[in-house]
Amino acid sequence: MDGPIQPQRRLSRWSRDSVLDGSGRPTVAKLTDRDIEVFKLLARYPYLQLDDIHAFVGGSLKGLSHHLNILSRKPNLYINRPHQQRQCADANYRPLIYELDEHGSEVLRDRGLQFLPKKSRRNFAHELMVCRIMASIELATLRSRQIRLITWNEILANPRTPAALRDAARPTSIPVSFTLGGEPHTTEIIADGNPFGIERTGADGGRSYIFCPGIEADTGSEPLQSHDFERSSIFKKFVAYRAISEQRIHASHFGFPNFFVPIITTTEARMRSMMQFLERITADKTSKMFLFKTFPAFTAFVKPPAPTGHMLSEPWHRVGVAPLDFTR
Fold first, then answer.
1. How would CATH label the architecture of 1-121?
2. Residue-wise over 18-47: b if at least 16 C-beta within 10 A, else e?
3. Which of 65, 95, 98, 174 has a Cα at 20 to 30 A from 47?
């Protein structure tokens, strides 16, 4: 006769060991419609915290945490907890961060849904920052009747979008040439995340639109200015984006009627330094295209921001003009 089933030892939140069922066997997950929504969400945003995911799919947070734990462990392996999150000193006390794993990608593929293959990303903190900001923007639009997210796929499908953009090998890359200090320069700008738009509906039913090439997520690794102009710097981005706007490349390249660049950095001091620097190099109306906000670094000793949609729903700072409120 078999002996009594021994209780399972406490599992590390970082291992992929199986959760055992009442019979002592590895728990096999039965996929639900909500699981598919989680996989689709992680296909859009490769890294998200547990509370980010919960903000989109709802239900019990505790129940979702338990279920995602099972989905990430053997024999399921639909999602993964990237090891890079352990770089944070208080990683054991923060919401877990998830990414789509191979089995999850297979589920989406079998359903004919889009996904990006799992890959090693060069800068985890930066990628996580981009994902959480872009997810916050989408979340704000889902919680408001006045604003709607215009996705990159919708932009590409719009008949007003230049046909050349749909056929381009790197459609999110914006080529631009300009002269600085008497010297000609040619470069390309690729923002973080995908280009997007916001459709706003006023009290009278009228609609207005704001378009962005993506976002510029700054973790403080780039200097404000570099003596080597070929090196990436905040100054180079300011100059290039201003040239794109002045030459209306945003209209010819994307078909955008307007052009705003959200710049998000990790501290208030860094943001103010950027804004002061922009004020020094330009005092004309093109400054209003740059939007500024903060989002704490992954490794900062502050509590990660809750997924409230605040990255879009709260006003953005600008230089020389009033803040921009996407919701009005």
1. Orthogonal Bundle (1.10)
2. bbbeeeeeebebeeeeebbebbbbbbbbbb
3. 174
Helices (H) and strands (E) in the chain, counts: 11, 11
Quick one: DSSP state of residue 48? Answer: E
Give the C-alpha distances (Å, rounded to integers) separating 252 from 104, 158, 161, 188, 278. Answer: 38, 14, 9, 15, 26
Domain boundaries, the chain: 1-121, 124-313
Q: Beta strand 207-212 with 174-180: parallel, antiparallel or unpaired?
A: unpaired
Pairing of strands 79-80, 174-180: unpaired
Q: Strands 79-80 and 97-100, how do they pair?
A: antiparallel
- Two structure tokens written together for 211: 């378009």
> How is residue 102 written in tokens?
């191979």
Name the token pair of 136: 């916050």
pLDDT digit string, tens, across residues 20-68: 998 999 999 999 999 999 999 999 999 999 999 999 999 999 999 999 9
Q: What is the DSSP letter of 55?
A: H
